[in-house]
Design the sequence.
């Protein structure tokens, strides 16, 4: 069994694309390289390129049904638990002083109330 080695032009015809498209996407496509410049594609490379370009329909009669995994209580988010309460912190800012590059001690030293947006 002979193994075909196709250049850019033959591969482009085989895939139904332009030579320029192959050259632009060569880093993303399976291929063989001989020396510094000779690029060729085998039948296996062409099949893999075909598989990379394959898309399944997302909607319509041919689309695969979406399978929802079994979860606790049947709801997909049932495994999530609520965050602990923030206590009686009555601030309008949800970004802590530390996230703004200041420690709570620096803010207190400057007379800035905790949670106050001082920028």
Sequence:
């Amino acid at each position: 069994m002979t193994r075909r080695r196709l250049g850019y032009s033959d591969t482009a015809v085989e895939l139904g694309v332009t030579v320029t498209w192959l050259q632009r996407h060569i880093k993303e496509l399976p291929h063989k390289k001989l020396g510094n410049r000779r690029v060729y594609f085998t039948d296996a490379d062409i099949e893999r390129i075909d598989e990379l370009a394959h898309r399944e329909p997302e909607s319509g009669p041919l689309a695969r049904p979406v399978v929802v995994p079994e979860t606790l209580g049947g709801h997909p988010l049932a495994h999530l638990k609520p965050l602990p309460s923030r206590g009686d912190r009555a601030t309008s800012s949800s970004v802590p002083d530390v996230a703004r590059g200041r420690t709570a001690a620096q803010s207190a030293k400057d007379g800035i109330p905790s949670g106050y947006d001082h920028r």
